[in-house]
Amino acid sequence: MTVEKQQELIRSVFGVLCSRAEKVSNFMEVDSIFGPDSRLVYKHYATLYFIFVFDSSENELAMLDLIQVFVETLDKCFRNVCELDIVFNYNKLHSILDEIISGGQVLETSSTEIMRAVEEISKSESASNSISLVPKTVSGWRSR
Amino acid sequence: MDTLFQRGLDDIIKGVRHQQSSTESIFMSRVIEEIRREIKSTDLQTKSTALQKLTYLNSIHFIDMSWASFHAIECISSPAFSHKKIGYLAISQSFSESTPVILLISNQLRKDLKSGNEFEVSLALDCLSRIGTVDLCRDLASEVFILMSSSKVFIRKKAIGVVLRLFEKYPDAVRVCFKKLVESLEGSDSPIVSAVVGVFCELSAKDPRSYLPLAPEFYRILVDSKNNWVLIKVLKIFVKLAPLEPRLAKRLVEPICDHMRKTGAKSLVFECIRTVVTSFTEYESAMKLAAEKIREFLMEDDPNLKYLGLHAISIMAPKHLWAVLENKDVVIQSLSDEDPNIKLESLRLVMAMASESNLMETCRVLVNYALKSDPDFCNEILGSILSTCCQNVYEVIIDFDWYVSLLGEMSRIPNCKKGEEIENQLIDIGMRVKDVRPELVRIARDLLIDPALLGNPFLHRLLSAAAWVCGEYVEFSRNPVELMEALLQPRTSLLPSSIRTVYMQSAFKILIFCIHSYFLQKEDMTSEVSDLASKRECSESSDLATGKALVQSDQDEGFNPRESNQSYEYPFSCRYWGWTEANLDREEVIASRVVEWVHDGFSEELGPVSVTAQDRVPIPDELVLKENLTDLEAICGGVELPAPGSFSLTSPYYGESAVFSVSNLQDEEDSEPSTESTSLLTEHRKRHELYYLPSEKNKIPANDYPPANDPSSSINTNDATEDLVKLADQSLVSKRKPNHAKPRPVVVKLEEGEAAPVVSKKPELKDDLLSGAIHDILLGNEAKAASSQSNPSDKSSSKRKGKAKHVDLLDSKENLAVGEQPNHENPSSRRSKHRGDGKQKSKKSKGKKNGDGRER
């Protein structure tokens, strides 16, 4: 999918959602944007919208729950998550998301499990980073 | 550049956020420049940081990153986990089938899939699941298979997630992985089961029949599992399987109702409800229980639950109207809910409840709602009223007079955008229902007279319908002169020219009618007709005569812009008016004959023509139909004619019986070079230069209602038969509805032509391969013979021949483990031998999986 197409999709979703009132249901039919048999569910937290697009192989209320799981995990991960956390932690966000959904399938719905995996991953990441930093500083030091 | 000073992702993000919108693009281009430099570095740390920044920019700011694909591959080959992670993320975001270097990652993926670090494995699996191509899937299927038996749940789970993509891209992977998949169904609550049923849910959506043999497994899970996700997925699978096997449905009803009663999870309850109302509609008790639960949903305050409840009822609605009626009060109340989803659902339900007896009341209530609602919903309401009422040739309507006045009322609703639909219905009803024509004309007159409507662009088509109706059925009107004035009022210049065409045609028809009556009166002077009446007629027609003069003078003055883009019709009718006027005083006899003759032409009723009528006309032998009329160019020269011969005043095209093929007409005109009309035309054009279109392509908008008796009007040869209704060549079947207080008028049903041939959809080749492969595995030898016959794809037949011929049949439905696998033609068979429950994972022999000498 080209970047233009991505942008267009996001714009149309935004267009659809920004006119929604507050206390209404959280589902929308988005056949015109994503093709037949597609629906979206969204949840609005302060300034953020979390949007999941799915088809008839998923249950609507379960999807709503999934957003909840995702946000809870974010909360555990960042301790009282706020918008800035999400802005500045692009990678971690992806780590979390990849644990929940893989290949379009929901794989894990327990936020403890997800947290566990994400923590391990972060540990591996930082471990490998420190290893690689050493030679770099050494060579940087040597070259002076 | 010293790498110690490389800007990290955080710096970029901060930088972007601090930009004003004016400086943002400069900042961006600077950043991208930087990235391009850094990414070429050989130091993997620098490279990966640059790649990370690029990925971020790609996903949040839509910067293209396809040029960096090779660098991403370099990153994933790093031994460091963080680099790998960055690289894989970049690849998942940006690679696609068309990326040239995608094949290069195959080896790296394989290495990572074999890695001891479970997170490296999971990175690779994730990546494969998102961008796996046919080649990648083929090469790596065996690795995935191995991973499906890994000791770590974490990895098994992810491997199962990838299987779906594998199957989709490379159906042969089924032979390798399917059994393992089925085995993973054991146990009821582990995350593995959850993943597996998810995969089966997707698979069964495409081809349920192949998975029917697995039904017992799913049943066991349905009964045993406590995990809501698993249950929901299993229910979805059963929705697809139950229609195929009635015995299955019988066994399922109990457990499903059980779950509905006991569970606390609303999502599960809803899924059960949905399953029951979709697939178990014959089981009364289940339906009743579902209806009860739906009612609970509807009583909740949560708009989500309300919406879903209404949605569930609307699934039930077609056959089980009782459920809708039970909840009628809630439904009607929901019409005024603030949630648009809820409003739409309840609107649909209200229309479903509409029947002959309550139609008038329902429509009254709905129109009131429409007046109070916002434009979108208003149009939704009108649209649904229109479509419900016109279903099945207006089945639900008894009182057409009321309906026609409702149509008129709807057109006046301020937000109405349904002009086209109303237009279609007005004309349709006019043609089919004779008895309603007087009322129709009355409504049309009201619409035409109102000058305010002329300003509303959505209603223009509607007005053209009204004009047509008035012209066509002018004999029912009480005051034709009024109609005439309405049609000719100055504000009609606001209308587009296609609509004005209709106006003029109708005006002409009315004119003819009036003059004809006038002449009739004159002839019957001695009859019983009172003087008053005759005077009225005489004065009417003399009014018309002055009216014509008015029209003509108007035209000379301020109507130039109008004339400059009006239709060809004008000079023609102008001629007639001029002529008739001139002749009124002197040669009345001739005039009256002319008028009589035109009037007769108009009085013949024309019905619509079916789309295929043209094709049914046999082409006479000597006639050669040319595909396109390029010859016309030569004949007509530079003059733009709407249709050759239309201006010839010779009579053959009028008064002749209406059974006249349009194509014949055209061809006759083609064959005589009609130089006569050309010269007439050029002469006329010279005289009335002002009133002609500039010599450019004359776009004739297609009219889709009969321009009655003007076979030459708006013919665009290519769409003549499609767009214009001209000839009645169908038999008319009348429809009667018995036993009503006011007898229902006769609605004429016109026989439709043959429907367009339906192109049968060829099933996807891949899906065939997949289901074929699954068939083979699950059902063994017998099924194999059957399926290879039923399967139209021949490509895989060679594979089938080579494949295991003697798969043992399943001993019992419970035990799906298959017996010995014989050797294929391919010696390096990968098949592992399973016995019993296949718990002996250690016994697997890992063969080498290569192309297997199979052709794709």
From TrEMBL, chain A:
PANTHER family, per the entry: ADAPTOR COMPLEXES SMALL SUBUNIT FAMILY
Keyword Isomerase applies: no
Taxonomic placement: Eukaryota, Viridiplantae, Streptophyta, Embryophyta, Tracheophyta
Homology family: Belongs to the adaptor complexes small subunit family.
Keyword annotations: Membrane, Protein transport, Transport
Localization terms from the record: Endomembrane system
Organism name: Salix suchowensis
InterPro entries: AP_complex_ssu (IPR016635), AP_mu_sigma_su (IPR022775), Clathrin_sm-chain_CS (IPR000804), Longin-like_dom_sf (IPR011012)
Pfam families: Clat_adaptor_s
SUPFAM superfamilies per UniProt: SNARE-like
Boundaries of every AP complex mu/sigma subunit domain copy: 4-123
Protein's recorded name: AP complex subunit sigma
Chief site of localization: membrane
UniProtKB/TrEMBL annotation, chain B:
Keyword entries, A-Z: Golgi apparatus, Membrane, Protein transport, Repeat, Transport
Domain Clathrin/coatomer adaptor adaptin-like N-terminal: 32-503
InterPro entries xref list: AP3_complex_dsu, ARM-like, ARM-type_fold, Clathrin/coatomer_adapt-like_N
SUPFAM superfamilies, A to Z: ARM repeat
Disordered, as annotated region: 664-718, 782-856
Pfam families documented for this protein: Adaptin_N (PF01602)
UniProt-annotated location(s): Endomembrane system; Golgi apparatus
Listed Basic and acidic residues bias regions: 805-814
Quaternary assembly: Adaptor protein complex 3 (AP-3) is a heterotetramer.
UniProt name for this protein: AP-3 complex subunit delta
Organism of this sequence: Salix suchowensis
